[in-house]
Amino acid sequence: MKVPGADHPITVTPTKGRVQVKFGGQVIADSTRAVTLQEASYPPVQYIPRDDAKMAFFEATTHKTHCPYKGDASYFSLKAGDKSAQNAVWSYVDPYPTVAGIAGHLAFYPDRVESIDVGK
After folding, report:
1. Is the pTM of this model over 0.70?
2. In this prediction, what percent of the chain has a pLDDT beyond 90?
3. Which of 2, 4, 18, 107 counts the most CB atoms within 10 A of its CB?
4. What is the rounded distance in angstroms from the CA atom of residue 49 to the CA atom of residue 65?
5. Number of domains in the chain
6. How far apart are CA 61 and CA 72, in angstroms?
């Protein structure tokens, strides 16, 4: 496990306003409780609580990844109507303590969903 620091800062902060994710013409996640994870120089990522997602559109996959700063991520594919996207969503069920605020939240690859609207 690596600890964020000056050379690789990571912050998790509440997102102002609403975050909506659309896929296949459907709003599949809608939250006023999202958090923004900012990691080093990467673009910020919105993490939405699972309770604020329509999990009927999500299918767990066997794909897994490991981040030395955040821990082990599991993945979901999306299906809405005739549209599908493999491993379009990831989640840290038990992240490392420095990013505990993303536990049980979902993050979306922007190029695999129609839109991620922040601040509506």
Report:
1. yes
2. 96
3. 107
4. 20
5. 1
6. 14
